[in-house]
Amino acid sequence: xxxPQLVTLLTDQALIAIIAVIAVVLVAGTAGLxxxxxxxxxxxxxxxxxxxxxxxxxxxAEEPRDTPTRTLEDTQLPxxxxxxxxxxxxxxGRLVRLRARLARSQGSLGxxxxxxxxxxxxxxxxxxxxxxxxxxxxxxxxxxxxxVEKLRTRVRVEGVTADQARTILREELIALVDPTxxxxxxxxxxxxxxAVVLMVGVNGTGKTTTVGRxxxxxxxxxxxxxxxxxxxxxxxxxxxxxxxxxxxxxxTVRGPEGGDPASIAFDAVKQGIEEHADVVLIDTAGRLHTKxxxxxxxxxxxxxxxxxxEVDEVLLVIDATTGQNGLTQARVFAxxxxxxxxxxxxxxxxxxxxxVIAVQRELGVPVKLVGLGEGADDLAPFDAEQFVDALLD
Length: 393
Known about the structure:
By secondary structure, this protein is an alpha/beta fold. Helix content is 51%, strand content 10%. It contains twelve helices and eight strands.
């Protein structure tokens, strides 16, 4: 057989095989279609609708098909979410802790003075060193000269040993701090109205923080406190104060940012009267003492409050590290508003404890509170003897 004939034969056989395969597929598909139609024909045309019956009640009622296996008492329901209020530290515990901290940070002043007074020979140079130490500690020039003169007189008359030097220095420092000043806070209800405390000071002294800390001190004494966020010019000041209040359960009265501070202060006092609160603490804007208009506005806040209630305390907050600048601030505030007490913040970590003596001497107003550290309870009533003992420890 020739090659052309062989190719023709193979082609015919392949074509026959393909036709056979197609035929088999067609036959199988036709058979499946017939079976499917036959099955559908055997099914009923429609499903029967279940018969609806009236539910049985009373004696004819059937027993429930399922018996519950758990009762309401057995079910553990989640406890409702409640805010946890902080419990502020008591005043006594706060005083002990703050005195220890003050002694650690301020001891250099007392130690320096004791070292100078305990010298074998107290000549003019030694007394000049004592003056320099006191002035550097922000005691002030006039109080320093007064203290040195008294020390020189007593040393000359009584003689000095190490123990005597400490006793003499302690007595004269206490006299200079003046323990006879009334350092109590007027924070009690009178004539069915809450006490009103106005907090004033320059930006950065820790004024808003002091308001929050003072609220904790008062709440630890079981007083009902309302806060007034009248600092409407500093961003987030009201939020900061409200956070302090929420931590101890004190209501915060606030207004829109940039609103009228006097109006908010008035509303806070009104709210305190309605709630029968013991104290209303009002945070004012940390205005610059060089801005005459802003200082006048501070006087307006006080006048508006007094249309409803008397302002019992005006506490001026001073940063203890600012030294003579703090004294300048104190003078200007005292001219605008009747300051009744001072709060010294940031006494920790500095040897500037003499500002207590200088600012009291300048204004004739007592230091009533001191702040040490960054903790929530780092605010305590000021005590002259404890302060001096901490300096000398």
